[in-house]
UniProtKB/TrEMBL annotation:
Keyword field: DNA-binding, Transcription, Transcription regulation
Entry GO MF terms: DNA-binding transcription factor activity; sequence-specific DNA binding
Protein name per the record: AraC family transcriptional regulator
Span of domain HTH araC/xylS-type: 201-299
Domain of life: Bacteria
Protein's organism: Salegentibacter salarius
Gene3D superfamilies xrefs: Homeodomain-like
Amino acid sequence: MNTNLSNYNRNLKLNTSIENRTIYSADYAELNVFETRQVAESVNLQFSFPIIASMLTGKKIMHLEGMKSFDFFPGESVVLPSDKKMVIDFPLANSKNPTRCLALGIDPDKIKETVEIFNENTRIDFENDQHSFDASAVHLANNQQVKFVLDRIFSTFLEDGKAKDALLDLMVKELIIRLLQTKAKVMLLDNETLFDNNRMAFIVKYMREHLTENIQVDKLADKACMSTSNFYRSFKNTLGESPIDYLNGERIKFAKKLIQRTNSKFADIAYKSGFNNTSYFNRQFKRFEKITPNQYRKLVNDNIS
């Protein structure tokens, strides 16, 4: 990990002293490294995708809904579902000894794909498991296998080379399988089991395949063979957000990939992602990512240059 931090420090660009964010992107994962250089309290952080956060240096005090507050130290990890709000204190951070944490976001489709492969070969057992499960968040205080894989993923994100994405794909799959053997497995499986024998699976698939089209809620309701009001209520109860919020979230994920891979104008990216209005695209991007599209592009380009 010391080598990883040395390579990270070499390219570090500080824009703020509290939770300065550096982004590294791959096909099915996004690595965020956060650095804080002053004491701070009640800092809010939230991601629109499932993440595993791991401490690198320093100490945080984590406040998560449904859990007792806990100290978060290097070598420990926290697994959180999409849109889980974190409130964080930084009691020891300073410029000489900054508090650093990585947050690895994983594409839900990659989680689902890996779970299916794992389940084909090793049937996931709940009945004989001794863990006390909480699908809202999981604190892994001392899991060396998970830490080892995260260290390798961090190192690979910092590398250049044609095999980088292929290696990261394998490592992310390994990380998911390692997590499926911990108390985090219920959280990872939660989104998938929501869709068991549920027509919402068809609707979500349709939305993902038609992101750039003008999708109306009443059209989705027709495809689900439901009234608009019943469909809206069922969708929100199943996925925890409205159909339009879910659709916008998927469009923003697609837009991020276009920003990473092209130099297209934001108006073109907005249109290709299914937004007819650039201003609305900018607002939604800021809502989901907490930064503007231009700031996101700058963060991505800073780590390529």
